[in-house]
Design brief:
The protein has about 90 residues and is mainly alpha-helical. The chain folds into two domains: about 30 residues; about 55 residues, no CATH class. The chain is built from four helices and no strands.
Length: about 90
């Protein structure tokens, strides 16, 4: 449990550090600048949140699988690029 608590504290510290920085960005910076995959900051943050949610789901459900190496690949169940492009524009 100690490791879990330490990880939570590190995560909370990162949120405290980065949340004000993200809130300080202008709307143009958030949606106007794109990376090499043509994704803007809003899309990237949305993708990170989506991935964290899906990975949490995987971790919870893996403990009930017959083998820890058998889990669904959510990327092959849908078109993630389409979701990222449409939901976070």
């Amino acid at each position: 449990m100690k490791e879990f608590h330490e990880n939570n504290q590190e995560l909370l510290a990162l949120i405290e550090l980065w949340a004000p920085r993200l809130y300080a960005l202008s709307e143009n910076d958030v949606v106007g600048q794109h990376n090499s995959q043509n994704r803007n900051i809003k899309q990237i943050v949305g993708h990170v949140i989506d991935s964290a949610s899906n990975n949490t789901h995987r971790i919870v459900h893996l403990q009930y699988q017959p083998s820890p190496f058998e889990f669904p690949n959510y990327a092959s169940l849908g078109n993630n690029d389409h979701i990222i492009e449409t939901l976070y524009e």
